[in-house]
Automatic annotation (TrEMBL):
It comes from the Bacteria. It comes from Solibacillus silvestris (strain StLB046) (Bacillus silvestris). Residues 23-278 form the EAL domain. This is Predicted signal transduction protein containing a membrane domain, an EAL and a GGDEF domain.
Amino acid sequence: AKKDGKNTYKLSSDDEDLSSYKKYALDRDMRKAISNEEFELHFQPQVETGNGSLCGAEALIRWNHKEWGLVSPGEFIPMAEENHMINGITDWVIEKVCQLLKEWKEKGLPIIPIAINVPPIRFMKKGLFQHVKTQLENYGIDPFYLEFEITEDTLLNIESSVYSTIQSLKDLGIRIAVDDFGTGYASLASIRKFKPNKIKIDKIFIDNINNEDKVDNGIICATLNLAKSLEMNVVAEGVEEFEQLKFLKKNDCDVIQGYLFSKPVKKEMFEHIMKAGY
Ligand code: C2E
Ligand code: CA
Ligand code: CA
Ligand code: CA
């Protein structure tokens, strides 16, 4: 038994070595990942609850690492926020989306607005507005086709410069969505400070629809009512089951995003989905 115990210990210690080596390697290699063209974007469709038609998509980054394969953003985005690579990565995503929109337009595809995750710290650094404006101009893209998703935390300890950047982006015609709504503390304060165009209800609430959780379902309905009275759109995230869709439809939620309709897909697959329109 002792030997087993020792083996077990040894195994988990190897595991730790592996994961800390992986972290070290990812942190090191991240610096070269943009110039090596190792990042790629996948797209997750958003569809209207009423008729299932395609109305938007969220761009989600993946890292094609030569040693570790496809690395998920959950693994490297927090790291990128710590080593400040996130700013360059965000700017890359913005440019890539504009470039793809141009390509799709030229192919004659019926393009739809693409949502981009813009993390808090990118707003703190200068040059975001100018970068966005330059990319839109370079690729000839109407700002209507861009939407920025901001997590509530950004909106909490908001500096006035961040506030004015968000306002400039809105004035330019870019829609602002509050991401992971309901999970932070800023929810109502953030909505009051500047009216976002859209709210994304976090998956944790959607997960509980089937359990008939009174509190969570109440939060969903209250959010939907609030959004309606302030003329904001609502997207329900992480919809996996038909029962959830039924509940959301019954309560007038405009748009859903989730595995029920589609997982995030590669560019080529997304082009097929756009062409088909659903
Ligand atoms: P998020 O912004 O909340 O994105 C939604 C995540 O939920 C995505 O995971 C998506 O694949 C997943 N998801 C969507 N529908 C379902 C569903 O029905 N069931 C389940 N189980 N999951 C679903 P992903 O792509 O792994 O991204 C994770 C997080 O990484 C994102 O959460 C976002 O915070 C961050 N992220 C992804 N791409 C980017 C990016 O380009 N820039 C930044 N700054 N962050 C990103
Ligand atoms: Ca998001
Ligand atoms: Ca989210
Ligand atoms: Ca999230």
